[in-house]
Amino acid sequence: MVWDPQQYLKFSGHRLRPAVDLLMRIPDFGPREIADLGAGAGNVTKLIRERWPDATVTAVEGSAEMVAAGRKAAPDVEWSHEDLGHWHPAGQYDLIYSNAALHWLPHHAALFPSVMARVKPSGMLAVQMPRNFLAPSHVLIGETALDGPWRSKVEHLVTPSPVEGPAYYHDLLAPMSANIDIWETEYLQVLEGENPVKEWTKGTWLTRYLDVLAGDEKIAFEAAYGARVAKAYPKNGTGQTLFPFRRLFIVAQRKG
């Protein structure tokens, strides 16, 4: 995927809120070495740095465009431009934080224990992932992909939800954890503008499909999805669009 920081940050306030909610649930245990996995444009990494100014913070991000934006937003952290799927650090961290990133990686049954193994004993793992993939906003992307002349090019992208339920992650991490807190929050996001749910997904999940297409076909796919999603999320009487969005949170302390 080619990430567009400006498109992603169109809804920066709504996207930032769960990241801050996760950050505030982490105990202030004085971490010295922190990794931010999938640091994006650096707006959350900056907050991590502000909360623990004496810590060494490493921001790991696979998008060159996001790294460039992140280095401007958080210049006083170490930026590592690398694919999260190939992240193999030499050492362990007191805190590994990941906001809205690990759902892009497959094989969570192996991934989450592997990431937890890179947390120091008594350290913390803090993760937030969207779990909105069965909502119309995301289901309609798949329906559009399978209903048009572009089907052969994009149908391989129509896959089951990449994020499991809370109990799944509890069972994965509990054997390695001294304590573990997992919860879900559904945010009722009040969006402004023309077809804002389309614009929201265009900053993330829809991008996977648009990147495969080009020219008039790309434009037609976006328009077809836009028509579907506008009907699913109509404006209310005041011209706003209500967009419920569920997210999964994990804060786990590794056994000492």
TrEMBL record:
Cited InterPro entries: Methyltransf_25, SAM-dependent_MTases_sf, Trans_acon_MeTrfase_C
CDD domains named in the record: AdoMet_MTases (cd02440)
Keywords noted in UniProt: Methyltransferase, Transferase
Gene3D superfamilies in the cross-refs: S-adenosyl-L-methionine-dependent methyltransferases, Vaccinia Virus protein VP39
Lineage top rank: taxon: Bacteria
Span of domain Methyltransferase: 34-123
GO BP annotation list: methylation
Molecular function in Gene Ontology: trans-aconitate 2-methyltransferase activity
Keyword Transport: no
Protein name as it appears in the record: Methyltransferase domain-containing protein
Origin species: Bradyrhizobium frederickii
